[in-house]
Amino acid sequence: MSETVNQINMEKVKMFSEKIAEIKEELAKDVVGQADIIDGVITAIIAGGNVLLEGVPGVGKTRLVRSLGRVLSLPFSRIQFTPDLMPSDVTGANIVEKDENGRLETKFRPGPIFANLVLADEINRATPKTQSAMLEVMQEHKVTVGKETYKLSEPFFVLATENPIEQDGTYPLPEAQMDRFMFKLIVDYPTNEELMNIVRMTQKTMEETAEAVITGEEILEMRALASQVPICDEVLYYAVNMVSNTHPTREECAPSTKKYLRYGASPRAAQGLVTCAKVRALMDGRYNVSYEDISALAYPILRHRIKINYTAINDKLTVDDVIGLIVKETKKGC
After folding, report:
1. Domain 229-329 top-level CATH class
2. Is the CB of residue 161 less than 8 Å from the CB of residue 121?
3. What is the CB neighbour count within 10 angstroms for residue 149?
4. Nearest-angstrom CA–CA distance, 299 and 16
5. For residues 228 and 197, what is the distance between their CA atoms, to the nearest angstrom?
6. Which of 69, 137, 224, 329 has the fewest CB atoms found within 10 Å of its own CB?
């Protein structure tokens, strides 16, 4: 009986990895390089999380999200965040209009957030008031306007972009909102070879050419399969201990934490580590979570949830440098 169950599971794992390969193949038609970014975005989407993409202008952040909308065959909307954007411009609003009999009635007109895949472009340019309108949407996939609450259709993802260099006229994202991003991915500048391929590609057409290879229903099925991937207690403890080690007030935290961190990650980080590790295992053709899955995902999961102190800055350490030290100092096993 167990052999039959294992055979069925491995067949599902094979189909899962093959579908991921198809998605990557189509995205490669529009996006040059950025393999780690593509892997991260796909992992977060299947896991049901939101992604924050950070990078200078022109490195393909918006193009990647637009191509994803085509490949995933999902309703796509783009919100260009600006200082004058109001919450109702994002969520929608109640409007008063006449019905067929000439009587006034109130109707809800949905905003651009009512899509399956939402690109929040330059999200840090919106005021805190407008940014707060995204909190309920990103966590609960619901919108409350007045006394009414509207559920968004599944699957639902927010992929936001921000420019780390140009800070004039921007508003730092509040910690509560940062915590609702499952991943923060850093989009690097392309290599010379990648830049040549980008130029060649855009000489032919500036439009996306990727085709749909998966539906929203299939994404939900893949998510359900990922939730069933087993994780042993030792690996689970490693993930939990990784997050606990980011808290400098904890007596048994890692030495680097006490030296370099001001405060650590929330329980959402531990949830995200385990959930995404299961997806990563399936993408790699495995039906079990490994220590390496947890270690690799620590960077995108933690880099926006922890804060380094002045000692780290004086030692010229980045957030990723500190995460690397914590990964090394986190003990494996129960």
Report:
1. mainly alpha
2. yes
3. 11
4. 24
5. 40
6. 224
For 3, counting Cβ atoms within 10 Å of its Cβ (0-12 exposed, 13-18 middle, 19+ buried), the class is exposed
What b/e string do you get for 46-57 counting C-beta neighbours within 10 Å, with b at 16 or more?
A: bbbbbbbbbbee
Q: Where are the domains of the chain?
A: 2-83+111-221, 229-329
CATH code, residues 2-83+111-221: 3.40.50.300
Give, as one character, the DSSP assignment of residue 125: G
**C-alpha triplet 145, 146, 152: angle, nearest 5°:** 25
Our CA angle for 10, 291, 155, nearest 5°, is 60
**Mutual orientation of helices 2-27 and 216-227 as an angle, nearest 10°?**
140
d(CA 180, CA 101): 45
Closest CA to 266 of 148, 179, 197: 179
Residue-wise pLDDT tens digits, 193-241: 767 777 777 766 656 667 778 888 888 888 999 898 889 999 999 999 9
Structure tokens at 283: 């993408």
Q: What is the pLDDT of residues 18-59, one digit of tens each?
A: 888 888 888 877 777 777 888 888 899 999 889 998 877 766
Its pTM stands at 0.86
DSSP label of 331: P
Q: Is 149 helix (H, G, I), strand (E, B) or coil?
A: strand
